[in-house]
Amino acid sequence: MTTQIYSNCPVFENNYFMLRQTIMADKADLFKVYSDKKAVPFFNSDNCDGDTFFYDTLAKMEQAISYWNLEYKNYGFVRFSIINKFTEEIIGTIEVFHRYSEIDMFNNYLILRMDLRSDFERSDVVMKLLRLIVDPLQTIFKCDNIASKVVPLNTERKKAFQEFGFSEVNKPLIGNDSKEYFHYFVLNK
Question: Is 162 helix (H, G, I), strand (E, B) or coil?
């Protein structure tokens, strides 16, 4: 496992977006994302102990950010805030971690979770974000394989992932609770 990202979190940037580690000061903008009832059904809450990522109070949003930062300190995962460079507002987050498993096909995969406010859940936005982060994250985590959940009703995200080169697999990711989770798209280098 690479620990470099956990001691010096990088910033990723293109003409449209900047991604940097989520901080507590992001809570107001992130509250707009995680209280967005149209967006929440597209979030990947697989293997998250029942958390649906719907936060209807600022206090719940603060708890989530505190937990994300604790996981970062414990080398669990990295959560990046997605900043729209035109409006300077945060429109979502991306979480990544290197997964090891002896019980499913997703061993040695980089798991990518992308949570976007519903008005940014468009194929062009998703494509710009994938172009920004996929290659550098594969290098940082020393991981050739990436998996990301795409909910079947999310046609915009599916279109972008397929255009980028991801393909859907019919095998489940098996959680810590032995539950099977489906609808994963994978990219293999």
Answer: helix
Distance between CA atoms of residues 176 and 25, nearest Å = 32
Residue 4 has what pLDDT?
86
DSSP classification of residue 106:
T
Q: What is the pTM of this model?
A: 0.96
- Number of alpha helices (DSSP H) and beta strands (DSSP E) in the chain: 5, 10
Amino acid residing at 38: K
Are 19 and 82 a contacting pair, CB within 8 Å?
yes
Give me the chain's average pLDDT, please.
95
Instruction: Specify the pLDDT at position 34.
Output: 98
Question: Phi and psi (nearest 5°) for 179?
Answer: -75, 145
Is the pLDDT score of 161 beyond 70?
Answer: yes
Q: Would strands 12-13 and 17-21 be described as parallel, antiparallel, or unpaired?
A: antiparallel
Q: What is the DSSP letter of 52?
A: -
Residue 21 pLDDT class (50, 70, 90 cuts): very high
Specify the long-range contacts of residues 121-125, CB closer than 8 Å, at least 24 apart.
121/39, 121/42, 121/154, 121/156, 121/157, 122/156, 123/156, 123/157, 123/159, 123/160, 123/163, 124/160
